[in-house]
Design goal:
This protein is of the alpha+beta class. The protein has helices at about 15-25, 35, 50-70, 85-90, and strands at about 1-5, 5-15, 40-45, 90-95, 100.
Length: about 110
């Protein structure tokens, strides 16, 4: 087991995000919070202390927000027009962890999403 020089940011949905997801396709059975939480995102971020976390999140919230929206709709017309930091914090709960352990074998591979 090894530690890596990253911290983690866990992005958990809140009720407004769930409501948005369920408003996308009203003909299907609504998604429950329990179903939604099983797909929560975890981001590796630079090693920061908890006091620096909000500054780092503010710097990257648009990328994180858009990643979460793309998980349910690739149509940008479905997305909220004003994706502010305030709205981001209303739609998502953030958790932070400072210790990241690698239990895998071999090199970590990186693949660009873009």
């Amino acid at each position: 087991m090894h530690t890596i020089n990253r911290a983690i940011l866990i992005v958990k949905p809140r009720t407004p995000y769930l409501d948005w997801v369920n408003g996308l396709n009203q003909s299907e059975k609504p998604v429950t919070y329990d179903e939604l939480i099983t797909e929560q995102s975890v981001f590796l971020i630079p090693e920061v202390d908890e006091g620096e976390l909000e500054l780092h999140v503010r710097r990257h919230f648009k990328t994180i927000f858009e990643n979460e929206l793309e998980g349910w709709s690739l149509d940008h017309g479905d997305w909220p027009q004003k994706r502010t930091f305030k709205l981001f914090k209303e739609w998502f709960q953030l958790e932070w962890g400072s210790e990241v352990y690698d239990l895998g074998r071999g090199e970590i591979e990186r693949e660009s999403k873009e």
